[in-house]
Amino acid sequence: MSDLDDDALFIEEDSGDLVPPSQTGRSWKIAIVDDDDDVHKTTCFALQHALILNRPLEFIHTYSKDETRQVFSTQSDIAVILLDVVMETEHAGLELVSYIRDELKWHDTRIILRTGQPGYAPEEDAIRDFDINDYKTKSELTRKKLLTSLTAAIRSYEQIRTIDTSRKGLHQIIESSASFTFDHGIQAFAAGVITQIAALCGVPPEGVLCAQGDACDDNPSQQFNVIASAGQYSKLMNCAIEDIRNPEIRDALKYVLTHREPLFSERNMTLYFAGRGNRPLAAYIDLPFALSEINRNLLEVFCSNLGVCLDNLTLVNQLKNHAYRDQLLSLPNRLRFIGQIDSSRSNQTTHQMVALVDIDDFAEINDVLGHHYGDLLLQAVADRLGKALGDEVFIARISGDVFGLLGNEDQLPPEQLKQLFSTPYLINDTAHSVSCSIGMVALDGYEGDGAEALKDASIALKRSKTMQRGSFTVFTRKMGIEIRERATLMQNLHRAFDSERLFLMYQPQIELESGRFIGMEALIRWRTDEGEMIPPVDFIPLAEYSGLIVSLGAWVLRTACFYMVRLQKAGIAPARIAVNVSVVQFRQADFIQNVRKALDDSGLNPHHLELEITESVTVDGTAIFEEHLHALKEMGIQIAIDDFGTGFSSLSYLDKLPVDRLKIDRAFVNQIDTPGGPRIAELITQLGRKLGLAVIAEGIETQQHWDKLKAMGCHEGQGFFIGRPMLEDDLIAWVAQQQVRSA
């Protein structure tokens, strides 16, 4: 750049009067980027004391591309850049434009290119290819034209910033409102106001004070207290406004809270928030500069929105209360308990124990004494737990009569928890003694979350109630593996039934005296996709527990009936086929209908069907049991009691049942080989003969078993020595072989 060009930078058209600097404290940042020091000086001289939109100018000087990059990386809010096109290289200025727009992302900043050598960067190409806002040769920039260009650029910058601030501010208001809605109570609400107002106005959260009180229209002098504060005013927390020593703050808050309108000055502002709940909230904020009109407009929207949030705060807290608290006992509920466990684990609190305390026989208490009495008992238990365990143990109501405890394992020794129930509870002037069962989970080293910990504690509790009521069980990894394997087995069982992986085998039954084939028992089997055989003793209880046994039992009955008809048509069928019936099936209202349908569809005469029921079914003694049993007999179906002697059925009740056959359990047959001998088998055989019932023994595995049972008068038998359970075609082959032998 030549000296001539630099000298011609400004041609004075009129000097004008110098205007003193503004006292607002804010200025426009103008960056002068040029490799000629004289350009910097003449530009500053030309613009000294100039006010644009009522603000003075603040200059930032750089002299090269590298220096500009370094300085700009630490700057912000530069309104206009007066940028020389040609500095150390002919493209240095244009390269800086790319840096400013693409790397710094300064899209609001206005860029005015200045050059004394236009040929290096043609104006048309520069405007087209680069994001610049004006292009001037230094010779045409008189003082007035420079001031005009800067004014236009700053006005454009301010408009863009205003639009952007409005957009960001409204977005902040929306986000703020959402966060306030879920805060815990009025103090947290007020503390959030401090942060959000500071962010909205671009000021630090220093010198912000919030006050709230229960004012009413007929008592405007109601006492107001500081409920949230920050920065230099943090010591005023919970202070009454009357006790604030700074009269400016005190008077501003009192004015706003009593007149219910905001108050603005150049050095501070005091905002007012209120909803229909008539609980006013005020915020005092120190300001380093006077607020712009856009900020005031945003604050007006913000305050209005916060008023709505204030209205909703009580409702939200009520909803939270219902969501996380038990309404009867005013204790945290199951959801809150799970959250507390998660919080304890995230805080890495050690030696924590989860305990579930269940009141034994509580359902019977409700049934006999009424639900009101049960509620009083629950309240008494909750009160005793709270007084005995104190604030160090988190207490919740998990379900009807189950309380959850979370605390240090030293505070929850199970024996001491049980002792809390040793003293009777006084309910309606009546002493009531109860016991409790307890399930526990130690959280040290536990890998699951709160929900899993609660589930495992429930598993331990169920184990306590199953094994011995009034006891306690601590969950172990082995216990968890067993439960999960059981759950997996149950899922696989459902899939196996749906995919027809279950099948029947048939075990022959013979007359011990003659060896004649007189019956067979249908036995369900399960082979997995991997070829593994799952024993019925493992999956039948799961089927009963899950309810699958109803569908499964119906399928077994129909399949057995159809197979029996097939053997009859082949002329090789025995007198009967026996099918086991679960107690769950027997209790179904449509059980008799399902049996009749299986017989009708298959065409099997009811006299050829025998249903085996376990001795536990006879203990039930319910009306539906007797009704079903007599209905079956009226149809002509035979009834056998399976595993006889393993239960505790009443002999007098047994004498009244329409039963045809008693089945000696294999355990008593195996005793024949022991020193005690066949005493129980003999007793059952004699009992059967006295009652006029046939007796069949299962589990005959040796010739000695056969001979002993025949000698004592047992009529029939089945077992491996006679024939193993067989598939359909294998049984047909076995029958043919027996016929050959007898011939």
Strands in their spatial order, largest beta sheet: 21-22-24-25-26-27-28-29
Mean pLDDT: 82
Find the count of extended strands (DSSP E, 2+ residues).
29
Helix proportion: 40-55%
β-strand percent reads: 15-25%
The number of helical segments is 26
How far apart, in Å, are the first and last alpha carbons?
Answer: 130 Å
Question: Describe the biggest sheet?
Answer: 8 strands, mixed, barrel
Q: What's the gyration radius in Å? A: 46 Å
- Specify the structural class: alpha/beta
Task: List segments where confidence is low: pLDDT < 50 over at least 5 consecutive residues.
Answer: 1-24, 214-221
Structure description:
There is one protein chain. The radius of gyration is 46 Å and the shape is elongated. An eight-stranded mixed β-barrel has the order 21-22-24-25-26-27-28-29, surrounded by six helices. β5, α5 (123-129) and β6 form a beta-alpha-beta unit. With 743 residues, it is α/β, with parallel strands linked by helices.
Q: Could you provide a short overview of the structure?
A:
The protein is an alpha/beta fold.
Fill in the keyword field for this structure.
743 residues; alpha/beta; six-stranded mixed beta sheet; elongated
What is the topological layout?
Layout (H helix, E strand, L loop, with lengths): L2 H5 L20 E6 L3 H11 L3 E2 L2 E8 L2 H8 L5 E7 L7 H12 L6 E6 L7 H7 L4 E4 L5 H39 L3 H17 L6 E5 L12 E5 L17 H13 L3 E2 L3 E6 L7 E6 L6 H32 E2 L4 E2 L1 H13 L5 E8 L2 H8 L1 H19 L4 E6 L2 E7 L5 H6 L5 E3 L2 E3 L3 E7 L7 H18 L4 E3 L2 H22 L3 E10 L5 E11 L5 E2 L1 H11 L1 H23 L5 E6 L1 H4 L4 H12 L6 E6 H6 L2 H13 L2 E7 L6 H6 L4 E4 L1 H5 L8 H12 L3 E5 L4 H10 L3 E3 L9 H15 L1
Parallel strand pairs: 1-3, 1-4, 4-5, 5-6, 19-20, 22-24, 24-25, 25-26, 26-27, 27-28, 28-29
Antiparallel strand pairs: 2-3, 7-8, 7-11, 9-10, 10-11, 12-13, 14-16, 14-19, 15-16, 17-18, 21-22, 21-29, 22-23
Helix pairs in contact: 3-4, 6-7, 6-9, 7-9, 10-14, 11-12, 15-16, 16-17, 17-19
